[in-house]
Amino acid sequence: MNPLRNASLFALFGIVISAVPMVAGFAFALRPSAVRLAMVRALTLMGVFVTLANVFSGAINVLIGLARQSLAAPEPSSVLYTAAAEIMVIPFTCLVFLALAWAGVAIGLRKPFDQ
Q1: Which of 32, 49, 77, 110 lies most in the core, judged by the most C-beta atoms within 10 Å?
Q2: Interior CA angle at 14 toward 12 and 17, to 5°?
Q3: How many CB atoms lie within 10 A of CB 3?
Q4: What pLDDT, in 10s, does the model give residues 35-66?
């Protein structure tokens, strides 16, 4: 749980935003309707954008860490690799939530609903 404990507020906000489509996808699975499907699509797009923003934010932080290294030790230390791995946990979690959202949509599409 270290990556979540060390996560920034932006990263935690991204996780919450990516969990919203999952809830909407499960709501669509329970009661499918065209309005709920449109809502899942819009919320998923929002989740994709916040996930990409988290990836770029993490990449920026890794590059800043590389730039701050001393010239005496040109190879990245294990701390930098650990930080890079921790940064990838947030987008992974966001993408899992988005995948679960569309699993709910797939379940909901098995039932007939109003077009």
Answers
A1: 32
A2: 115
A3: 17
A4: 999 999 999 999 999 999 999 998 888 888 77
